[in-house]
Design brief:
- The complex is a heterodimer of chains A (about 250) and B (about 300).
- In chain A, helix 3 packs antiparallel against helix 4, helix 4 (about 55-85) runs antiparallel to helix 6 and helix 6 (about 100-130) packs antiparallel against helix 7.
- Chain A contains 12 helices and 2 strands.
- Chain A is globular and about 60 Å long.
- In chain A, about 45% of the residues are buried.
- Chain A is an all-alpha fold and about 250 residues long.
- Chain A has helices at about 10-20, 20-25, 30-45, 55-85, 90-95, 100-130, 135-160, 170-185, 195-205, 205-220, 225-230, 230-250; strands spanning about 50, 55.
- The longest helix of chain A is centred in the N-terminal third of the chain and has 32 residues, at about 55-85.
- The two termini of chain A are about 15 Å apart.
- In chain A, strand 1 (about 50) and strand 2 form a beta hairpin.
- In chain B, about 35% of the residues lie in helices and about 30% in strands.
- Chain B has helices spanning about 45-55, 75-80, 95-105, 110-125, 140-150, 170-185, 200-205, 220-230, 265-275, 290-295; strands at about 5-15, 20-30, 35-40, 60-65, 70, 80-85, 160-165, 190-195, 205-210, 215-220, 235, 250-255, 260-265, 280-285.
- Chain B has a 6-stranded mixed sheet, sandwiched between helices. In chain B, strands 2-1-4-5 form a 4-stranded antiparallel sheet, with helices on one face. Chain B has a 4-stranded antiparallel sheet with strand order 12-13-11-14, with helices on both faces.
- Chain B is globular.
- Chain B starts with 5 loop residues before the first strand and ends in a 6-residue tail after the last helix.
- In chain B, about 45% of the residues are buried.
- Classes of the chains: A mainly alpha (about 250), B alpha/beta (about 300).
- Chains A and B meet through helix 1 and helix 5 of A and helix 2 and helix 3 of B.
Amino acid sequence: MTITKDWIPVWKRNRDVFKKLFWVNFFLPLLEPIFYLITFGFGLGSFIKEIDGMPYKKFIIPAIVAMATLSSSFFYTTYSSFVKMIFQKTFDAIIATPVSIEEVVVGEIMWGATRGIISGILVLLLFKILNLITFTIFFLYLPIIASLAFTFSSLGMFFTATVSTIESFNYPIFLYYTPMIFFSGTFFPLNNFPDVIITVSKIIFPLTFSMISLRNLEINFSIKTLLEGMVPLIHGVIFFILSIKLMKRKLIK
Amino acid sequence: MHENPIIIEGKDICKRYGQIQALNNVSFYVKRGEIIGFLGPNGAGKTTLIKLITCTSYKTTGHLTVFGLDTEKTPKLIKSKIGLVPQDNNFDPDFTVYENLLLFSRYFGISKKEAEQRIEKLLDFVDLKNKRNEKVTDLSGGMKRKLIIARSLINEPELIILDEPTTGLDPQARRKIWELVEDLKKLGKTIILTTHYMDEAEKLCDRIYIMDAGKIITEGNPKNLIKEYIGTETVEIYNCNNLDISSIKGKKVSFKDKIYIHTDDKKDALEKLVNMCSDIKFTIRPSNLEDLFIYLTGKELKE
């Protein structure tokens, strides 16, 4: 598996589409974090005094940032990449040029990651404007956001390489993605569950590490906490390599 | 034709997809400056062969070199010198005509400045200058094919491969594509085309390989092949029940509800048929590749 810088034009292609479709593909989905903030932060949050010594509004903020980031990455390398691969035959067109299939996949994952990072930053900016976070938090969150973006971009591509039809994305989405969204310590802390469940949750849903870390960073900063938030990268690297191999097997026969 | 160097050489190539034998001991060569046609019905193995040449598939066994290079060891270098017109118009639907060409130039590592100059020339060459800002999805079928030919030329390829370039086009659009192919030949390009249209192969190709069910059946110049195998004239007889044609010289093929007599001596055939009975319906016309294909395989090219 040799990968040269030829993945960059693939990344650039995606960036150019993104610029064209910024409003529909990007700005509109950004309304979702605002709805979350209203529902959970201001709505439900007004009934809950505090969780782990933290006002619920503050508790929910890292979850909203993380979800905006990873969904932006994950849904890019699943649906968008699949449509390009199967319906638009864009990958076929590109691999007839010097760009290899491995480089196409890397370009896709890297763009998915970039997209997630942009989403995360925009949500953080929004929260900064609303004075819900500090500048320190803004910067401390960035490496964790980047890890989540890369990880879920790779994971999405892994599913794209394994599903046969666009409908079968429902398996990974409803059996993995959705439970992860609820059970990774996003809307409620896992503290009250037995340790076994917490451990299992951490292994299956790497987002759990990031959620704990993002909240601890609110309280106090340490390098260890920051690194814990980036644990998903381990999953990310594994799925990155797997998705390249599987995609090659799928498209080059 | 004086001896041009061979730029593609395939020897005993086999390709299996699971249980399906897509290519079965295929050997061929292409010389610089030739237009080579691979002619055969759907499923003959033409597209599989194209995939091997463009380094987007792996052969099961055999040898294949393009520009003297192994397709599985140096794909990047080989692909940088090939222009492919695929069967599907796989444009990027989010972009305009001009943007599609610019986008493609980046995959070849062509600088933006250089690409812009080439795109001007290419849009001129395929006569799409006034469509530059249209969305590709708004182009007609013929225009899409022309654009995809322009796209295949962005890297100034030595070898141009056209996979079914005129399938699904109306006759006028087909003629336009043929003109473009002939222009490319004049520019000294080497061209491979696959087709299941015998008239296309006959008109454009210096040499053809006739394929069926993963095998190459025969190879040669279209006119020579016809002359060699079946003769220059073909008599088609329509209502031929109980007709004794054994005295007529030539090769007789019964196919569907017609009898074909392939011959070099149309006078002999004409005289005997006229004398045979009065209400016989027949035509005499020049033999073509379709006749040859039916003669060789007992099947039609088009299903």
